[in-house]
Every structure is written in structure tokens, then in C-alpha cells.
């Protein structure tokens, strides 16, 4: 399926507002990037001046938004036929595709250069790689060609804590890589729970999501497999000594609930019960990741006082 290079002919191009350009940044996704990057920065043993740290965090957030804008530019044709995305600014005709592309490129360059000048060029290089990986490799190649698109593409969403750590230290170490692994393993079951709910949308758009290619039941088993593997990885910060007993307890309990949610998705295969199980797991998965990173952050701040 060719991507859209012009505004959908069924929608008259309207005048874009500031809110439309903010929507191009995917603010909800950006909030997760900001939070996980902040945790990576806070856990780092050395740091920047608070003002420079804040500018660095903003640059990381803007870089994430830039890749989202590039994603929306390229995926306008897909977004236009999916109920979940058809009201996005480009397919709805409020922002011209060329404007979304220029917006994404400008923010990409600005965020990378800013992070390089304010923090260091290792962090800037990682941010540039993340933007390229999501905006080009995932969006233009993986998403339309393989059912493993979310598995591989999840690396982009998992890199913010590594970038945050690198911004503070100029290096990469084990703790941020563990945080990367947690988000990387969390992404498939989180997104596949949504994909099960939106299976018809993806099929209509021609996107080879796992439920479309392998079927809903194979997807349910994959969700359970990832949930089971995620639990010990989620506990790894405590085992490796950069998280305390409170974190260990939160990770164990929430990880167990994550697995129970995945089992519930596997058990309920049809009708309202199946949709409810998927919706509950999707919602809880967001809470799970927030709890782990919030507990890490809280423990570190308490220890620092």
C-alpha cells in the first residue's frame, strides 16, 4: 500500500491549529518518553546542571514527537481507513502532508543538535538513531512488511532511559540497558492487546499485525509468553542492586497481575468477555510500566535526601 503524499481527496484541507501540530507529536506517547527518560537521568550517578538537564529532557521529548510527526506523515493512508486514527490531523485534512513532513524534519534536527550541544554527542547520536529507527525503519519498512513490526520497532520506544542516562554521564551502563529491556519486552503484549481489539481495522488497512497474520489465538499465546518473560526482567533492577525492596515487591505483585491478565485474555476468546479482557490488559499494562518506573524514581529520590 502506497503512503499518502497528498491530503485525502475526500476531505477538504482545513486551516491547521496549534492543537493539530501538538497532536502530530502524539502527546500521550511523548509523556511516556519524558517519564522513562527522566528515570534514566535520575538514576545516573553523575549529572548536568538542573537547567541543562531540563533542556536535555525537553530535547529528548521533542525528538520523540518529531518521529511521531514523521510517522503520521507516512501513514496517512493507513490512518485514514482505521477508526482509531482517521481523525488524526493529516488524514482528517487539517494538516497538509508536506507540512507534517517539514515539521518532523525540523524538530528532528533541532532536538538532536540541542541535545548534542547541551549534553553530549553520544546522547544526541542515540536520539538521532531513535528518530530514524521509528520514523523510517519501523514506519516505512517494518510496519507494512512483517508481523514482528511491534517486536522490532519497540526498540525505539525503549531507548529514552538509555538516552537520558547517556545525556547525564556521556556513557552507557547496565542499569539503563535493563530499563531498555523492560520496555522492549513490555511493548508487544501491551500493543497486541490493543491489536486484538482493532483486528478488523488493521486487516482493512492491510497492516500485517500479528492477529491479522497469525490469528487471534496465536497472538494470545504470544501475549502470555511475553508477560511471563517480562516478570523476571522487571525484577532485575532489584536483583542487580539499583532498586530496593519496595521496588521488588511492586514488580513482583504487578508482574503477577500482568500474567493473570494475559491468562484472562487467553481464556476469553469471543464476544464481550474477550474484548473486556483485552481492554483490561491494555489498561493495566500502562499502569504496570508506570508503577515500575515511578517506584524506581521514588526510591532513588528518597535515598538521595
TrEMBL record:
The chain crosses the membrane at residues 29-48, 54-74, 95-115, 121-138, 150-168, 174-197, 218-240, 246-266, 278-298. PROSITE patterns: UBIA. The keyword rRNA-binding does not apply. It catalyses: heme b + (2E,6E)-farnesyl diphosphate + H2O = Fe(II)-heme o + diphosphate. Converts heme B (protoheme IX) to heme O by substitution of the vinyl group on carbon 2 of heme B porphyrin ring with a hydroxyethyl farnesyl side group. Its EC number is 2.5.1.141. It comes from the Bacteria. Gene3D superfamilies: UbiA prenyltransferase (1.10.357.140). PANTHER family: 4-HYDROXYBENZOATE SOLANESYLTRANSFERASE, PROTOHEME IX FARNESYLTRANSFERASE, MITOCHONDRIAL. It is an enzyme of class 2 (transferase). This is Protoheme IX farnesyltransferase. Carbon 2 of the heme B porphyrin ring is defined according to the Fischer nomenclature. Belongs to the UbiA prenyltransferase family. Protoheme IX farnesyltransferase subfamily. It is found in: Cell membrane. GO terms for biological process: heme O biosynthetic process. It comes from Amorphus orientalis. CDD domains: PT_UbiA_Cox10 (cd13957). Pathway: Porphyrin-containing compound metabolism; heme O biosynthesis; heme O from protoheme: step 1/1. Its main location: membrane.
